[in-house]
Structures are given as C-alpha cells and as structure tokens.
Amino acid sequence: MVFGAEELRVLRRALALALHPSPASAEDVQDCLRLAESLDEATREGARLRAFLVADLARYRAALPGTAAGYLTLLEEALGAGYRPHSDDLAALRALRGNPIAAALLDRCLVLAERDVRARLAGATAAGRAAPAPTVPASRTRLLALPGGLSGAAQAPAEQDA
After folding, report:
1. Residue 154 belongs to a domain
2. Count of domains in the chain?
3. Average pLDDT in the chain
4. Which of 25, 86, 88, 119 is spaced 20 to 30 A from 58 at the CA atom?
C-alpha cells in the first residue's frame, strides 16, 4: 500500500495526537476518519483481489497438467500475497516436480507448510497454558476517539455552561 503526501500528513498528525494527546481540530478528526475509510476500502479491495487470485489458482490447479506454466506463475504470485499452500497445492507440485520451477516452488511450499504446522502446534500447546496472543490488529476505537474529537466537541458546550 502506498500513501500519498496528503495521507502521510494526516497519518503523521494522527500519530502525533496519539503520542501527545491534545485537542484535535474538527478538520483533523475528519481527515483521520477519511483516512481510516480509505484504509478500510483498500483492505477490502485487497481481500477481494486475494479471493480472486485463490479462485483462479484453484481453476488452474484443476486443469493440470495442461496449465502448468500458468499454475506455477499464479502460485508464485499467490505466495507473494500471503497465500498458504494447501495439500492440493503440494500434491500438484509433487506431480510437476520434473519442472525446475515446480521443484523450487515445492521446496518453498513445504517450508511454509511446516511453519504453519509448527505454529498451530505451538498455538495448541500455548492455549493449554495461557491465552494466545491476538493475531488481529487492535481496534481503531482509540484512534477515532481523539482528544477534542467528536466526543470532545459534544462535551465542550456543557463544560462552557458550567
């Protein structure tokens, strides 16, 4: 994801407010909300693109061996986008291992699969001892409730009357 100059300015202001709480102007709050909406939309778009890529990968895998070149290219792209290989991918790569690219991808996928299994086992073991560490980023609730933001603006008239 790439930020433009304006988004970086808003992000820098939001981080400054988070580190050094002070009243935020209505414009800063609106800028932060627009940036949050833009990030949410980019995240949704990324998820849609990944879903399309994974579906395309499944179609190519189903048409193997005739689509080996396309499948290998798509698998490489999917791995770069964070896709974790499934048993079907490993089986397809084993069938294609005569191809040097497929052999290299098989090695890469086996390493990733082993890491995933180890992580699941470690998570299961850790779950017996303590709660697992969260894997999802914390909510933006604190960012949306900036000092002097919407909640601060609603309290300001009441404080002035007192």
Report:
1. no
2. 1
3. 80
4. 119
Opening angle at CA 117, ends 114 and 122, nearest 5: 125
pLDDT in tens, 37-56: 888 898 899 889 889 999 99
Q: Which two tokens stand for residue 151?
A: 């909640």
> CB within 8 A of 56, min separation 6: which ones?
74
- In which residue are the tokens 């998820």 written? 47
**By residue range, what is the domain housing residue 95?**
5-126
Torsion-angle region of 66 (φ positive above 0: left; ψ -120 to 50: alpha; else: beta): alpha
Instruction: Please report which confidence band the pLDDT of residue 105 belongs to, taking 50, 70 and 90 as the band edges.
Output: very high
Residue 119 belongs to a domain:
yes
Long-range CB contact pairs, 153-162, < 8 A, 24+: 153/26
